[in-house]
């Protein structure tokens, strides 16, 4: 019987992000996934409260939590490589599918249905997956802001391009988050506690 799934998930902490960049503070996919889960949850709450939708906010968090777990097998391919051209992008999607199947098969068969849709998006959850993608980008933008606060100019152009990509997503939830909540990330601890 397959039982390796949870032990494999615990290895997320060994996969570092931003490999091509000089980092003031390193980030692994475990840390990143927690932040994406919280941000996806926040976007779904905003969607329900401000946009009058009826999304499953807990499901949004769960999608964020598992969104990068295939990188346990594939590693974190840097964005400029992953999205360098359409052939590489398509090939990497296939690699991610194979990695997702491999992880899924590390669970007993009777448990696999509970995880299948975390690796393979379903049409009825398309909007939640858009919010998860936006949360992933928000997490990257926050990382860029944190690096800039630490005096690291390495992330300045990434910050601009990620901000532009978020705005181009044309999601009201993202616009609300960028306007109302993102400025708070510029503050230090004392300012946040006031």
Short summary:
The protein is an all-alpha fold.
Explain this structure.
It is a single chain. By secondary structure, the protein is mainly alpha-helical. The chain has 11 helices and no strands. The protein has helices spanning 5-9, 29-50, 57-66, 71-74, 79-82, 86-104, 113-119, 126-149, 156-168, 172-181, 189-193. Helix 2 crosses helix 8 and helix 3 (57-66) packs across helix 8. It starts with a helix and ends with a helix. The model has no long low-confidence stretch (mean pLDDT 94).
From the structure above, extract its key features.
194 residues, mainly alpha
Name the quaternary structure. Answer: single chain
Order of helices and strands: HHHHHHHHHHH
Mean pLDDT: 94
**Straight-line distance between termini:** 53 Å
Query: What is the number of E strands?
Result: 0
Shape: globular
Q: Any idea what the radius of gyration is?
A: 17 Å
User: Proportion of β residues?
Assistant: under 5%
Instruction: Give the biggest beta sheet.
Output: none
Q: pLDDT under 50 segments (min length 5)?
A: none
Q: Helical proportion?
A: 55-70%
What is the number of helices?
11
Q: Provide the structure class.
A: mainly alpha
């Amino acid at each position: 019987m397959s039982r390796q799934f949870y032990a494999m998930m615990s290895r997320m902490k060994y996969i570092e992000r931003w490999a091509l960049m000089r980092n003031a503070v390193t980030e692994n996919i475990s840390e990143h996934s927690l932040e994406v889960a919280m941000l996806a949850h926040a976007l779904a709450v905003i969607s329900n409260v401000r946009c009058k939708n009826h999304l499953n906010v807990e499901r949004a968090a769960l999608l964020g939590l598992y969104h990068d777990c295939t990188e346990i097998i594939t590693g974190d391919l840097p964005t400029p490589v992953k999205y360098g051209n359409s052939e590489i992008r398509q090939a990497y999607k296939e690699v991610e599918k194979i990695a997702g199947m491999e992880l899924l098969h590390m669970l007993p068969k009777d448990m696999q249905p509970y995880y299948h849709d975390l690796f393979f998006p379903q049409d009825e959850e398309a909007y939640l997956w858009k919010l998860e993608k936006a949360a992933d980008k928000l997490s990257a933008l926050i990382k860029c802001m944190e690096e800039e606060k630490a005096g690291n100019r390495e992330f300045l152009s990434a910050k601009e391009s990620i901000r532009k990509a978020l705005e181009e997503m044309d999601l009201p939830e993202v616009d609300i988050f960028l306007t109302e909540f993102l400025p708070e990330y510029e503050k230090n601890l004392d300012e946040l506690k006031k």
